[in-house]
User: Fold these one by one.
Assistant:
Number 1:
Amino acid sequence: QVQLVESGGGLVQPGGSLRLSCAASGSIFRLNGMGWFRQAPGKQRELVATITTGGTTNYAESVKGRFTISRDNAKNTVYLQMDSLKPEDTAVYYCNAFTFSIDYWGQGTQVTVSS
């Protein structure tokens, strides 16, 4: 199995930046990719960004041009650089890792964008 631990969340003003980190451990060699999802109170969890083991990235339209997903294979870590943050980005952000058939999830880290 895979364990995922997120970090880097916090409070930031609109227009500010945060970088989230997700450290993976366990059977990481089986992963096809990783990503970030977010969930605001009372809303469904939504895709933010993904990156495959080959380095292909995909983003939700709402974050394109503002967020960047990246990875550091040596550290078994995926990052989400969030720039130009908006209040609507406020949510719990969850790290996701996926194989062909199974998804793994971290516990989440809170991101609050407010003045």
Note: The chain has a mean pLDDT of 95.
Number 2:
Amino acid sequence: QVQLVESGGGLVQPGGSLRLSCVASGSINSMNAMGWYRQAPGKQRELVASITSGGSSNYPDSVKGRFTISRDNAKNMVYLQMNALKPEDTAVYFCNARQLVFTRTVNYWGQGTQVTVSS
């Protein structure tokens, strides 16, 4: 079992920035990928950033150029730098760890941290 804890959420004005942090109880080196998802009320949980064990990052068009995912393997931490925030970025943001166990992909989730972008 992997424990993930997010922090760094809060209220920010449009155009502002936030940096989310996620600390894992286990080694993120054992995870095939780390990522950040978000879920707004009435909407599906969506991927906002991912980074593979090989260091390859991926972003959807909605956040590309504004969000940056990074990791610190020594500290077992993953970060999400969010710039130029928009009201539509408002959501609960979840840290995610994905691990391929034989034929099964296992997802681990943090408790979520609220990000509210509002003027």
Note: The first strand starts at residue 4 and ends at 7.
Number 3:
Amino acid sequence: QVQLVESGGGLVQAGGSLRLSCAASGSIFRPKAMSWYRQVPGKQRELVAAITSAGSTNYADSVKDRFTILRDNAKNTVYLQMNSLKPEDTAVYYCNGLIGVVPKTYWGQGTQVTVSS
């Protein structure tokens, strides 16, 4: 069984930085893809950044050049480095993993990021 645990969220002023982490446990094989989503109450969950097993990355236009998705395969951990944060980035951030021989999607519990003006 796979478990994803996020950490690193918090309160930060606009222009500041945060580094989110997502630690995966229980998996045997390297994930096919890991990604970060975020969700604001009343809005649909949206993809922020993704990284494939081959190392390819993809970012939402709204965070491109500000956020970076990183991975440490030895630690089974994926990170989201968030720089130049804006109040519009305020959301609950969720880690997502596509994992398994027969791939299945797993979600973390979410971590709150609040960016003040």
Note: The chain has no helices and eleven strands.
Number 4:
Amino acid sequence: QVQLVESGGGLVQPGGSLRLSCAASRSIVSINTMAWHRQAPGKQRELVARITSGGTTNHADSVKGRFTISRDNAKNTVYLQMNSLKPEDTAVYYCSSNSAWGTHWGRGTQVTVSS
């Protein structure tokens, strides 16, 4: 119903930056909320950030001031700009959407922060 494909993950040094992208198969104007979660080995999946169709954003305390979620409705894409990356940010990052079509998840993209 709604397919999500993440991209932009990779290996980056501490203090570096990455920009993750999540492309949706349909207009995100109809999607109430899009979000990024992450899951590190041995840890539970946690919410990183979310954004509503109205542009309201929320960021986890652990990433506040470093990460920024945004939407580009024309491109049906949500982004996660990650700055000042720390080794503890290492995880698989997942994009999700919540709308009238239900909740959907992408397959994830690996982010590794290491020197």
Note: Residues 29 and 54 are 9 Å apart (CA to CA).
